[in-house]
Specification:
Largest sheet: 5 strands, parallel
CATH class of one domain: Alpha Beta
Oligomer: single chain
Distance between the termini: 24 Å
Protein name: Putative transcription factor
Radius of gyration: 20 Å
Pfam families: vWA-TerF-like
Number of helices: 14
Helix content: 25-40%
Order of helices and strands: HHHHHHEHHEHHEHEHEHH
CATH architecture of one domain: 3-Layer(aba) Sandwich
Number of strands: 5
InterPro entries: vWA_TerF_C (IPR019303), VWF_A (IPR002035), vWFA_dom_sf (IPR036465)
Amino acid sequence: MGSRRNLMASPRNNTDNPNNHTDNPLKCLDNLSNNLGNNSSDNRRTASRRLPNHMDNPNTTRARAMGGPPPGQPQYGAPPPGGGPPPGPANPAQVQGYKQTLMSAVQENNLQNFYPPNSPALDQIAQRASHQIAQLCQRWRLPQEIGNDVVKLGLFDIVLYIDDSGSMQFEENGERIKDLRLILERVAYAATLFDDDGISVRFMNSLPPPQVTEHIKTEQQIEQLMSQIQFKGLTPMGSHLKERVLDEVLRNARGGQLRKPVLVITITDGQPAGEPQNAVFEAIRNTTSELSRMPQYGPGAVQFQFAQVGNDEKAREFLSKLDQDPQVGSLVDCTSNYENESAEMARSNPPVDLTPELWLVKLLLGAIDNSYDRKDEKAGGGAPPGGYGGPPGGQYGGGPPQGYGAPPPGQYGQPPQGYPPQGGYGGPPPGQYGAPPPGQGGYGRPPPGPPPGQGGYPPRY
């Protein structure tokens, strides 16, 4: 896959400017990461059982601590009050840079049927991103080159599929539900930066009315939705993933009404229960198989992220099994809980303080950007220390192969030559268009050639 992007090793020399370099590319996030404890990995692991406690402080609310709107700003996509004059016209070179990033994502995810070359939808997203990415980086305290990647969310409709089983309520004193709310708020915020439609939410057990589960954009909508949810019952993860999310995607596809590809983000604290053991695997496999037989869409029309909240070891083992599965593993990305991810990065060399924001970026982008996705690590040999949830052993990322929307030249975080740092949606897909690009192994498969030193889950064959 070529050289991998390295979140941890690119040199920097100015912490005040996210486009410049410091010794640690995450240095600009230290104010948040310091709340996880001191530089000792033991202290960090103790402090990070859940997303950091400083979010409970009413003076630094959960929303602000993880990048949401300040108090009094209900609309996630709106600019901060009193934040200065309205943005001026977008820099054409900057817009072109975002468009190039989007074109690379189109190729990587086989979305040419939705976004053919010169699609006006890409121009619309890029224009909007030129104003919104700086806002995202400021609120989430992200380096610019990391924030730039979030523009790829604009290509997708996002469905959050939530575990509302009893264990979410009773384990860890309900802290898992607090973390879930944070994730829901942050996903809604990031999605509405580029699309006014908001996100859709589905639950494994509850069936709230559509008026509170569709077009979620604001904190008030989230509160209204969550007030109607009773966390109880088992975890029918696969059967209800099919019935409540994927069947709807397939109905729209069969009727030619699937206007955008769908990113399904599953948030769970445990392993499936109350259904056949292979239900999740079958739901994913059958959906992608049917979509692959629809040339106007293709299997790239749906992407899957599975993320863990809480510290349940069975959940961790299930996600490892899902990611390692020889048939399904290449179709999904799995993100361990924040505790596991931060502890593993603390043990890396050099140690890295993983902030909640960067963990969320991985959750958001892992299924659609191979530089955040570890599903291809299996081909690279053994697991990193600690196994599942550990950081990659090699370089993060390398873009997709050259071709349609060829990625910007150079290393991760470097803009294409001649344009500054990177900072509407069109109609239905325009008919039947093309096969996966040459050299692309097919839906969800990384390009040939794993990066050297890239780890993965322990072999389970």
